[in-house]
Amino acid sequence: MRIATYNINGVNRRLENLLSWLEVVRPDVVCLQELKAETSAFPIEAIEAVGYGAVWQGQRSWNGVAILARGATPVLTRRALPSDRYDEQARYIEAAVNGILFASLYAPNGNPRPGPKFDYKLAWMKRLIDHAGGLVAAGVPVVLAGDYNIVPTDDDIYPGHREADNALLQPESRVTFERLLSQGWGDSLRAVYPQGPLWTFWGYLRHRWRDDKGMRLDHLLLSPSLQPRLAAAGVSREARAAEGASDHAPVWIELAPVRKAPAATSGPSRSRSTARSRGRKRPMTERARR
Hints:
The chain has helices at 15-25, 44-49, 116-137, 171-182, 188-192, 237-241, 272-279, 284-289, and strands at residues 2-7, 29-33, 52-57, 65-70, 75-78, 92-97, 100-106, 142-147, 186-187, 218-222, 230-235, 251-255. The protein is of the alpha+beta class. The strands form two sheets. Strands 3-4-2-1-12-11 form a six-stranded mixed β-sheet. It has a six-stranded mixed β-sheet with strand order 5-6-7-8-10-9. Strand 3 (52-57) and strand 4 (65-70) form a beta hairpin. Helix 3 packs parallel to helix 4. The two termini are 15 Å apart. It comes from Brevundimonas goettingensis. Its EC number is 3.1.11.2.
């Protein structure tokens, strides 16, 4: 199963980019962010025409999230985080596809800081952490996918940057991401590529794309039960290079099928050494590179 997260930065403005990418890559599930379209303006007919069903939550001019599934319609479970009763910003949607729960999230940017926008960012992340902890405790197989608007470490931004005051890099922001991981969530990209640049975002200004001055803002976090299935991961940089592209590139992972236990036989049993050899687990990063 190939799963992707993609901040499309205007689903109608960049519809041709999205459709072309879907037809070439054919991911099984896609989590979209920054639709920048109210719910009634979501281009469902065009998306269905290339073989995808969808659920979405729109907002005029800002925010907006969606989950797409190839050959299926995701089963909607939630349109907002708990405790979001009075929050009108469309930043979270959750749905089930083929026995896995997917969340598409667009966390607040938080700039400028200090101020109410940064306070809102931290409060929103606290709600996400509280909800995510409940999912882990329930043992649900979950993919938390989206634009977290957090640069987790200094290795996740280009060297020599001048972004020290940016809300995305603040210690308070990074602590929220660390709190998520401490619940047992796995950072898919870093599981496959523990070191090195993994940019997912390049701003439009100051030749950021041309000079490869990027940040890693888009993350696919896996619940504990899914982490052994991680087979591959990457960033679709070619989508960022396309004409009229979003300032984000799609980030993708592949999950291996669930392995079924071998059927019992009445024949001779395997040797103990063979059984031990075949049953030995590999480190997560090694399995992911296969």
